[in-house]
Design brief:
Structural class: alpha/beta
CATH architecture of the largest domain: 3-Layer(aba) Sandwich
Radius of gyration: 19 Å
Distance between the termini: 33 Å
CATH superfamily of the largest domain: Murein tetrapeptidase LD-carboxypeptidase, N-terminal domain
Oligomer: single chain
Number of helices: 11
Order of helices and strands: EEHEHEHHEHEHHEEHHEHEHEEEE
Largest sheet: 8 strands, mixed
Strand content: 15-25%
Amino acid sequence: MTIAMVAVAGLAQPRHHRGPRSPHHGPRMGRIINPEAPEFLKKGDKVAILSPSSVPTDLSIIDKGAKAIQSWGFQTVEGKHARSSYHTYAGTPEERVEDIMWALRDPSIKAIVCSRGGYGAANCLNLLPLDSLKKYPKWIVGYSDITGYLSAQVRAGNMAIHGNMCGYLAKTGGTDQLSLWLRDMLMGKMPRYEVPGNELNKPGKASGLLIGGNMCVYGDIADTPYDFLDRRFIDGRDIILFIEEVEEPYSRIDRMFQHLILRGVMDKIKALVVGRFDGCPPSRGYNSVPEFIAEYTRDYNIPICYDFPTGHDESWNYPLIEGCPVTIDITKEKVTMEFNVK
């Protein structure tokens, strides 16, 4: 399938680094203002490479990913525990949070790129107060299990980037279009995406805050202070939800989608963006996951698109800004998405 390449808008004005916020040390459950973009990067800025979830099975991706980021004009520094191993994790929860807090507190570090996802965010979040993310707003980049940290960022009032990590950058050298879009986003240049349509698409146009990612990960932190789909957060906001999954049976996808319905999420969103469901073979009488979701959503009067480029197929995983106001226009023939960062 041909991917439509589109022009990139002009460079946004850099945001000034925000000073310390509340001295409160625990997560708050009250209303939070719309997320803001952390300070955009410029050439020469430092990017930290961390492994806040699983340890890479091939540690060379850290070095190769760092080289790709350096080719963009940034410096890279590595977390103390980026290569540590504790069971399947990159260190104990305390060690992984130590790396995160180091990167957040160091004023010379402007962004965090994760080495990989895997598993482990859930056992770190209770050690990572939202106020720390509020006090030290930095871009965090990742997907899959990193969805948990991205959700926490949004709840803290920061935008974050759902996008490819060191593993992909190691393969491509950071010179492919997806990687260059990620580089441009970090520097404040927003792409306008135009991708092929799908016959199952439900046409329409919507605007709202873009949030989402791996269904299993954000389902596991539901109704916690780190949950970007918490009713107290999404009430009164226009939300565009994107979803993706990998190697899950239809029974699990069924339960996860039912969970969204029972939580009232589906009644509140303005549009649904269905990404890739890789390694989820047809079953239960359905030919595909999109066919299954289309049946579930036929009574919802919202725009819906299918096979949008987000998910575990890294060659089809466009960088998306969590918590960012976007406008999406869905037709049967094509889908366009614009990021409205001020």
